């Protein structure tokens, strides 16, 4: 069995469409199991902050390969300590030829970077700690 | 609706151009970088030939008068939507009253702005492209001016809330050669009529794009190309990509708005799959010609089509997932 990120995306879309929370498949040599946790059904960046103060994070909203520079603009680098505006990209997720952005939802500063360049990430993977301004 | 707040000259509405009217002397017109226009449309879920804006000179500012999906492709112009920077080759949703500012390009020459469903202007001769010389197509056959309002056809496609983009073609497609502005050329009918030194220079020289370059053609500067003997040619059909050599020995690449006929000797023709690279070359840039044959041109065409098909599939999947996920 050989699956690409695109295949995983397709499986996920089918799970969401069918309301499935768990999917397992085996062809006898290899198997895959995918779990759709209702608690993470929304990217973490959109989840309301918990009552107990924890570091906020900026998280992915798609599955693929994480990069910290845009493939067409290598001079842009999001780095720890940078001030970001609302909606500004801090990283990108590349899946095939498509690119989605990992964005700061509000103004703030980037804290610790939590993932490495080139890592395969899923939905809601925290990428940066984040300190909101104001 | 989009309102132009400030614009330099020569911003026009273009689609993929007109075909089938050469016999009436009507040139192809259409986007200079047809690949960038197609990508911009595919990002939005449009047909790849929907009309968009071709913006060759910056800066430009415009305001969205209603919520609208749009994309920016081609030259990377450090675009800002309000105070939000946008990456190159990106589609996102503007809110009513958002102002889009396109700044001086970091790379490339022409920016393409596409909108959901395409720009809504009447078709003339099967195309919405502006034909400046003949003053038809687009909006009254003219370049856009401050205060112009542009309507979008619209569609019901939903984008991921942070937008979606693609790996730019300069990264995704194999380079045509060592130089960043190498383009593949098939020797043309009069190639053999040039002397040995000229033929060698044609392939080895860096050809500087002069300021006398526009949508009709790019005049190049480099070593003088000389025929072995004078040639008198009857006027014949000329298509975008043909490299003519007038008496001065300096080549001209015929492009989207080129005349349909010409009588200068033709030393080569830039393959269709590489015309976008020329469209993004700026005056002062150097072009390098790399010899190619029809099989190589077909391979390059296939590579481009594969890239576009993959792009459409991958971006479409991201749009569908974002909708299912509730983040569109």
Order of helices and strands of chain B: EEHEEEEEEEEEEHEHEEEEEEEHEH
CATH class of the largest domain in chain A: Mainly Beta
Overall number of strands of chain B: 21
Count of helix runs of chain B? 5
Please tell me what the overall shape of chain A is.
Answer: elongated
Cα Rg of chain A? 16 Å
The termini of chain B sit apart by 21 Å
Oligomer: heterodimer
The secondary-structure element order of chain A is: HEEEEEEEEEE
Q: Could you give a quick summary of the protein structure above?
A:
The complex is a heterodimer of chains A (134) and B (328). Chain A contains one helix and ten strands, in the order αββββββββββ. Chain A has 134 residues and is mainly beta.
Structural write-up:
- The complex is a heterodimer of chains A (134) and B (328).
- Chain A is built from one helix and ten strands; from the N terminus they run αββββββββββ.
- In chain A, 10% of the residues lie in helices and 36% in strands.
- About 5% of the residues of chain A have low confidence.
- In chain A, strand 6 and strand 7 form a beta hairpin.
- Chain A has a four-stranded antiparallel beta sheet, with no helix packed on it. Chain A has a four-stranded antiparallel beta sheet with strand order 7-6-4-9, with no helix packed on it. A two-stranded antiparallel ribbon of chain A has the order 1-2.
- By secondary structure, chain A is mostly beta strands.
- Chain A folds into two domains: 36 residues, no CATH class; 91 residues, OB fold (Dihydrolipoamide Acetyltransferase, E2P), CATH 2.40.50.
- In chain B, helix 1 packs parallel to helix 5.
- Chain B is globular, with a radius of gyration of 20 Å.
- Chain B has two domains: 168 residues, no CATH class; 111 residues, Cyclophilin-like (Cyclophilin).
- With 328 residues, chain B is of the alpha+beta class.
- Chain B is built from five helices and 21 strands.
- Chain B has a seven-stranded mixed β-barrel with strand order 13-20-17-18-15-14-21.
- The model of chain B has no long low-confidence stretch (mean pLDDT 94).
- Chains A and B meet through helix 1, strand 6 and strand 7 of A and strand 7, strand 12, helix 2 and helix 5 of B.
- Strand 7 of chain A pairs antiparallel with strand 12 of chain B.
